[in-house]
DNA sequence: AGCACCGATGTCACGCCGCGACATCAACTT
DNA sequence: AAGTTGATGTCGCGGCGTGACATCGGTGCT
């Protein structure tokens, strides 16, 4: 393969992030992005399915990593715990912290992009369901563990993001799990 | 107000559902829908924000009803229970079971529409969070109860739809809740 | 009756989106 | 040098969604 690989996708990503921050997501057209990256719109759509996908290009890789972690887990007899732990231990900052910051800023500023975020979350949970079943977990249990686990973690994650990454994600996650326990068993120990 | 009100929106909905079933969602253009309903595309967009919204027009009304049910609940000391019960007791068939069937069929056949469904689910959960907080539930507990409760119910709901509405939704919901309880407390009764 | 008003719809025009078909150009291979 | 391969550009199209404005038919008031 030639060695000019990646140049365009990379420039497109940076250009898009910049423009989204400067003038907003909706107000930025693909033409502008392509112009700043010095390619045509046609090239843009060869790398990204649509304008929003620029912000979520990595998610497929993340999903694969997380699912593999489930398949590699030493013990899945406690599927809910497995799911939340894997999520909490993942390195969400990734290679470029700056790009990550821009990503969050743009997504937070655009309700329409939250949708896309939801879908990615859903995809990951679906991957978990499949992986758990492969590990022998019964279907309904797998669905519950994956979906509930994702929700529990996402609450911890939101708190973590709010703290700018300063808080301990694992601790927040444990706290959320503990709270869930009291919610599931109301009127018992821990409520009064 | 004139008395020909509603005629167009109704015809557009029926026309859209028919065409979606006949030739698929993606393959159906707004022009075709409008033609069959004997209006112009401009009129279509006056009633529906976009093509997909035809399938989700009612969801805002549903959301308002569910949220109000939380506000009217006699006791919210067990928020998770409140959420799932309200969802399980709602009349999901609505006025027309046939339209509902078409809706499900079209959504199930289109991954892109599942996204929209997710968003609506998320909106409802967000409404629950707000309502629970108004009822005095602490923020994190409200978030957990709303999001986890929605997930638990959605699993029961999926099973119910699979049974064509024959199964008892409340019972399925209870079963899911019971399973969640065993998942949250692993290594105890029910696991070995 | 006559008239002013108003809401639903149509007409026109526009810009953006996403992609198929094909041409081009650089680098690598033999 | 010639062929191959992969990235990119050019052209053109059909669908999407909306703003601006015209139209037309009831409504209500005089």
Descriptive overview:
The structure is a homodimer of 192-residue chains. With 192 residues, chain A is mainly α. Chain A has two domains: 7-54, Arc Repressor Mutant, subunit A (Orthogonal Bundle); 58-184, Tetracycline Repressor, domain 2 (Orthogonal Bundle). The first copy, chain A, is 69% helix and 0% strand. Chain A has nine helices and no strands. Chain A has helices at 7-23, 30-36, 41-47, 59-72, 79-89, 97-109, 111-134, 139-162, 169-184. In chain A, helix 5 (79-89) runs parallel beside helix 8 and helix 7 packs across helix 8 (139-162). Chain A is elongated, with a radius of gyration of 19 Å. The termini of chain A are far apart. Chains A, B: InterPro entries: DNA-bd_HTH_TetR-type_CS, Homeodomain-like_sf, HTH-type_TetR-like_transc_reg, HTH_TetR. Chains A, B: Pfam families: TetR_N (PF00440). Chains A, B: Residues 6-66 form the HTH tetR-type domain. Chains A, B: This is TetR family transcriptional regulator. Chains A, B: Keywords: DNA-binding, Transcription, Transcription regulation.
Label this structure with key terms:
DNA-binding, mainly alpha, Arc Repressor Mutant, subunit A, Homeodomain-like_sf (chains A, B), HTH-type_TetR-like_transc_reg (chains A, B), 2 domains, TetR family transcriptional regulator (chains A, B), Tetracycline Repressor, domain 2, 9 helices, 192 residues, homodimer, disordered N terminus, elongated
Sequence-ordered SSE layout with sheet pairings:
Two copies of one chain form a homodimer.
Chain A: H1 7-23, H2 30-36, H3 41-47, H4 59-72, H5 79-89, H6 97-109, H7 111-134, H8 139-162, H9 169-184
Helix pairs in contact in A: 1-2, 1-6, 4-7, 5-8, 6-7, 7-8, 8-9
Chain A binds a DNA duplex (30 and 30 nucleotides) through α3.
């Amino acid at each position: 393969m030639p060695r000019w690989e990646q140049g365009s996708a990379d420039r497109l990503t940076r250009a898009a992030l910049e423009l989204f921050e400067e003038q907003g997501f909706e107000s930025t057209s693909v033409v502008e992005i392509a112009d700043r990256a010095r390619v045509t719109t046609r090239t843009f759509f060869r790398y990204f399915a649509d304008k929003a996908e620029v912000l979520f290009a990595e998610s497929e890789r993340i999903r694969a990593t997380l699912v593999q972690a489930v398949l590699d887990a030493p013990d899945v007899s406690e599927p809910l715990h497995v799911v939340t732990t894997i999520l909490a231990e993942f390195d969400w900052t990734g290679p470029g912290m700056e790009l990550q910051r821009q990503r969050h800023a743009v997504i937070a500023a655009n309700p329409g992009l939250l949708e896309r975020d939801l879908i990615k979350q859903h995809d990951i949970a679906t991957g978990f369901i499949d992986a758990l079943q492969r590990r022998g977990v019964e279907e309904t249990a797998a669905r519950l563990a994956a979906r509930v686990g994702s929700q529990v973690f996402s609450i911890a994650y939101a708190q973590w993001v709010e703290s700018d990454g300063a808080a301990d994600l694992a601790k927040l996650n444990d706290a959320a799990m503990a709270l869930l326990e009291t919610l599931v068993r109301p009127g018992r120990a821990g409520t009064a």
